Amino acid sequence: MPDEKGKMTVSEAGRKGGETTSKKYGSEFYEEIGHKGGKKGGQTTKEKYGHAFYEEIGHKGGQRVKSLIEKGKKAM
After folding, report:
1. What does the mean pLDDT of the chain come to?
2. Between 31 and 39, whose confidence is greater?
3. How many Å apart are CA 49 and CA 42, to the nearest integer?
4. How many angstroms separate the CA atoms of 43 and 9, rounded?
5. Which residues lie closer than 8 Å to 30 by C-beta, 6 or more apart?
6. Which DSSP category does 43 fall into?
7. Alpha helices in the chain (DSSP H)
8. Alpha-carbon gap, residue 50 to 68, rounded angstroms
9. CA–CA distance from 41 to each of 1, 17, 21, 27, 30 (Å)?
10. pLDDT band, very low/low/confident/very high, at 1 (cuts 50, 70, 90)
11. For 7-27, how does the pLDDT look when each residue is reduced to its tens digit (9 = 90+)?
């Protein structure tokens, strides 16, 4: 049997780290960093680029989906 001591999957390592962090800081910690992340990301982007930015990226996304659908239809 190969030496498996100390080996764990990425999923196991993440779960273990999350549990340790949760025990150390509590649920309030996650609420605080979640709030910071949400405000920093979306709110900052909105203030920096404005409404037109969202229209542009929405249009690009729609065009990409349209081309993928056409490509799929041709493949059939």
Report:
1. 84
2. 31
3. 11
4. 36
5. 22
6. I
7. 10-25, 27-38, 44-49, 51-75
8. 28
9. 49, 24, 23, 21, 16
10. very low
11. 889 999 999 998 999 899 988
- Residue found by looking up tokens 């780290």 in the block: 17
Residues 6+ apart with CB under 8 A from 46: 54
CA 7 to CA 13: how far, in whole Å? 9
The per-residue pLDDT for 2 is 52
| 44 vs 50, higher pLDDT | 50
Top pLDDT among 32 and 41 is at: 32
Rounded Cα distance between 66 and 70, Å, is 6
CA-CA distance, 64 to 72, in Å (whole number)?
12
Structure tokens at 41: 């990301």
